[in-house]
Amino acid sequence: MEEKNDPLGLENKLYTIEEFGSIIRNKFGGDNYISDVILGELFLAKYPFYSCKIKKSENYIPKKNCGCC
Question: What is the DSSP string of 13-37?
Fold first, then answer.
């Protein structure tokens, strides 16, 4: 059952942007010419709430804050 606060049903852990993009692709599909990183970033731009689930690294800094941290 999907929780109200997490419609994607993600585990309570941190994901790399690549892992997150792969989850989005597996759940909703996506064109193969778009990388998992780009797909993840596009999703986060629309739904910044999920930024808390992404590991912060020197290569990835979210463009928007999630609002909870």
Answer: S-B-HHHHHHHHHHHH---TTS-HH
Number of domains in the chain: 1
Q: Which domain holds residue 4?
A: 1-69
Residue located via tokens 């997490």: 6
| Token pair of 37 as six digits | 């990183």
Token digits of residue 36:
């998992």
Paired tokens of 9: 């049903």
Q: What angle do CA 21, 67, 1 make, to 5 degrees?
A: 55
Tens-place pLDDT, residues 13-69 = 999 999 999 999 999 887 788 999 999 999 999 988 898 889 877 665 555 556 565
The number of residues making up the chain comes to 69
